[in-house]
Design a protein that fits this description.
The complex is a heterodimer.
Chain A lengths: L3 H30 L1 H4 L3 E4 L2 E5 L39 H11 L9 H4 L9 E2 L1 H15 L3 H10 L1 E2 L10 E3 H9 L5
Antiparallel strand pairs in A: 1-2, 3-5, 4-5
Chain B lengths: L2 H29 L7 H15 L9 H24 L16 H12 L9 H4 L2 H31 L9 H27 L8 E5 L5 E5 L3 H10 L20 H25 L3 H28 L2 H4 L16 H14 L14 H12 L10 H21 L4 E2 L2 E2 L2 H11 L1 H14 L2 H6 L5 H15 L14 H30 L16 H16 L3 H16 L5
Antiparallel strand pairs in B: 1-2, 3-4
The chains are: A mainly alpha, B mainly alpha.
Chain lengths: ~180, ~575
């Protein structure tokens, strides 16, 4: 029983130290030193929050670039309930879903990210190949030239860090915001 | 597979090994109570805690006393977390007004976090309040990892000298592991993650109006601090349901590199620390080589399988590797390395959904856990698990040449081998027994979300993950049922404590023996021959017993996939 006091005291002391003081201190540090990041990297337009630069959102209109399919429920890109499809490689449900989506995906070979759901269901990015296949549709819907849209896509393509780390990608929300910011003709 | 993919993976592993050597030296020093650069700041806190707790840090404990103190701390902390989860509604920082967890879910979750498993039968953003995550889960991430490091240090001391009765003082080991190792690393990593975009706020969510006019509720919380210790402590329980695949837990490729590094760092460092503790650094390097070679081999296999992709989708006209359940910013190479790292350590955090890996990718994850979490394993638990295999390896070598086996000058005799086997047998008993029982009950079958051989893999994965204290899942499985909440809680308990207590007894028995000088007939345990033998023992003893189960699950699924069959 000589162990009872140290067990209780250390559990209480560490809960106070590591569960209250340090997390709250980190919240304070975050709001002072990294206010944007600590608050979720929210993106504003005309004084309103339109999303987070890190979290994907649903786009279905012709004039926007579309993100990857999302498996969140009840709606795609539900940022309050992240998750993947958890379908196995041999799942009939997976093969049927991909087959359905292939119909509107354009000519084969289709880049994998066009018809697969992400792990979080909130993937903010698409691959450059995926974006390139959407350029003609977006340009036509907006009455812009393909070259103009291609220029925006190129400007929003992030490469690998030091040419090595990560994969080339395009943030769909930021690209669509830039499209909306184009002067109308 | 691409050169860039290999380059990324090799860069990550090189950084891990480059950091493991100096960190291992530091760990060995601070766990022995020696001064270090952080002593001026931390000594007063450390001594304050000893005074409050009424502890004399120099009072040695025999293995029974050490085990009792360890169990007492974990029991007290388990009860506290159970109470917090049940009473979550009344605790502060619960802006969503989440109700308390059900008794069975709270029991499962509390057992999961106290055993360093972090199996999650709940979804973080819709069942655990900011308060419960901070006061409960975050603190468990620290103390369960510190418990492992303490036990590893105690067991290592049994090999350091001859004729000793004490393994050290558990309270001092726990406090030192927490204050000198886990806390400083967590602070550095959490500030780096914060800068890269991981939120740290008391707000529960932000509301946005999307460009197409829909309402999007974006879950937030104090993520950064918990994220850092979740990886450094090889815990793995995500703040959000999608775990480290969620952009708020792991926003960029660089944050992912840091997270992958963090989860491998301490287990590899402990191998180096072992060399310092036993005053023979080559012994630590040999253990690190065994861990590194096995991890490298399995990570490469996972990468090959994921890059090859899914032939069923290729037949429909989809190009490239398997991207179902993976994020674009990480891609296939980083996702495969992370999947292997998280199952090779007992972390269980994921950046890709393991349920959607190719059959062989999933096989790698299952097999790495079934090896007993030793390549490199969890914080502390990896090292003491590896030492059990090292004893069995010298025993096997001793049988071959007809000599009494020795490891580091300690004779390995009947009692030690019996205790080692007692610990090792927990794995097949709980994994295969639990899977078999679940698959013949209606409740177990009702939890499966995939049909065919993958259904069997889902159940096998759950029992494997729980018993090996990993915590990752084939997450399509519905885990919040009577059978799985109670059954897996028992598996986690056995996997942690029914392994640890015999190993502490083993250490007690070894500590009391004299340390024999090295002679001409001593089998050297730092050369390539021993490394090869130990790899063989781990693969045969740890892995082979699961081959029949694996051939019914992922291996059968692989051939079905090649034959174009769906379920």
């Amino acid at each position: 029983m000589s162990h009872l006091r140290p067990a209780l005291v250390l559990v209480a002391a560490f809960t106070l130290l590591l569960g209250v003081m340090f997390p709250l201190g980190m919240v304070g540090l975050g709001s002072a030193a990294f206010p944007t990041q600590a608050g979720g990297s929210l993106v504003m337009r005309d004084g309103r929050v339109v999303g987070s630069a890190l979290v994907g959102q649903s786009f279905t209109g012709e004039k926007y670039f579309h993100p990857r399919p999302s498996a969140t429920t009840p709606d795609p890109y539900n940022a309050d309930a992240s998750g993947g499809s958890n379908l196995a490689a041999t799942s009939k449900a997976l093969v049927d879903r991909v087959q359905r989506d292939m119909a509107k995906a354009g000519p084969a070979p289709v880049p994998a990210d066009v018809v697969t759901t992400s792990a979080s269901g909130l993937d903010p990015h698409i691959s450059p190949d995926n974006a390139e296949r959407q350029v003609a549709r977006v340009a036509a819907a907006r009455g812009l030239s393909k070259a103009e849209v291609e220029g925006l896509v190129a400007a929003h393509t992030e490469g690998r860090l030091f040419g090595l780390i990560g994969e080339p990608r395009i943030n769909v929300l930021l690209l669509n915001l830039a499209l909306d910011a184009q002067p109308a003709r | 597979m691409t050169m860039i993919g290999w380059g990324q993976s090799l860069l990550t592993l090189t950084l891990v090994f480059a950091c493991a050597f100096p960190l291992g030296r530091y760990v060995a020093r601070v766990m022995s109570g020696d001064r270090s650069v952080l002593s001026p700041v931390l000594r007063p806190v450390e001594h304050g805690l000893y005074v409050l707790a009424g502890v004399n840090p120099t009072r040695g404990m025999g293995w029974r006393g050490y085990a009792l103190a360890l169990l007492m701390l974990n029991a007290a902390h388990f009860l506290l977390l159970y109470a917090m989860l049940r009473l979550q509604y009344w605790l502060p920082f619960n802006p969503q007004g989440f109700a308390g967890m059900s008794p069975r879910l709270a029991l499962n979750t509390a057992m999961s976090f106290v055993t360093n498993t972090n199996w999650q039968a709940y979804a973080g953003e819709s069942a655990a309040s900011n308060g419960a995550q901070m006061f409960g889960l975050t603190v468990h991430n620290f103390l369960s990892a510190a418990t492992g490091i303490a036990a590893a240090a105690a067991i290592s001391r049994a090999f350091a000298a001859g004729n000793v009765q004490a393994l050290g003082n558990f309270w001092a080991d726990l406090v030192r592991a927490t204050l000198y190792i886990l806390l400083p690393l967590t602070l550095v990593v959490s500030v780096a993650l914060l800068a890269m975009g991981v939120p740290e706020t008391l707000a529960a969510s932000a509301e946005a109006t999307t460009l197409e006019g829909a309402k999007q509720v974006i879950a937030l919380g104090p993520v950064a601090f918990q994220e850092a210790i979740k990886l450094l402590g090889t815990n793995g329980g995500g703040f959000f349901n999608a775990n480290s695949a969620h952009p708020f837990e792991n926003p960029t490729a660089l944050s992912n590199l840091l997270e992958n590094l963090s989860l491998l760092l301490i287990p590899f460092s402990l191998a180096i620390a072992f060399g310092h503790w036993v005053n023979d650094r080559k012994q630590g390097v040999a253990l690190l080589c065994v861990m590194a070679l096995l991890l490298l081999a399995f990570a490469s296999a996972a990468y090959a399988a994921e890059a090859a992709g899914n032939p069923l989708l290729h037949a429909l006209g989809v190009a490239g590797g398997n991207m179902e359940g993976k994020e674009v910013r990480f891609g296939i190479a980083a996702s495969s390395l992370f999947a292997a790292s998280t199952t090779a350590t007992s972390t269980g955090a994921v950046i890709a959904m393991h349920d959607s890996l190719t059959p062989l990718g999933g096989l790698v994850c299952l097999f790495l856990m079934q090896l007993g979490e030793v390549v490199p394993g969890g914080d502390g638990s990896g090292l003491y698990g590896m030492l059990v295999f090292a004893l069995l390896a010298v025993f096997v070598a001793g049988l071959m040449v007809g000599r009494t086996p020795e490891y580091l000058g300690k004779k390995v005799q009947a009692r030690e081998v019996k205790l080692a086997m007692l610990a090792v047998l927990v794995l097949p008993l709980s994994i295969l027994g639990g899977t078999a029982i679940s698959l013949v009950t209606a409740s177990g079958l009702g939890s499966l979300s995939n049909a065919g051989p993958h259904g069997l893999s889902q159940m096998l994965y759950a029992w494997t993950s729980a018993t090996a204290n990993n915590g990752s899942a084939f997450a399509g499985l519905s885990a919040d049922t009577d059978l799985l909440d109670y059954g897996l809680a028992l598996a986690m308990f056995l996997g942690r404590f029914a392994f640890l207590v015999p190993v502490l007894a083993l250490a007690g028995s070894l500590a009391a023996k004299p340390k024999l000088p090295t002679g001409a007939g001593t089998f050297p345990t730092h050369g390539p021959l021993f490394v090869g033998l130990l790899i063989g023992v781990i693969l045969i003893l740890g892995g082979l017993q699961f081959l029949p189960a694996l051939s019914l699950g992922p291996i059968a699924e692989h051939f079905a996939m090649l034959a174009g069959k769906t379920f």
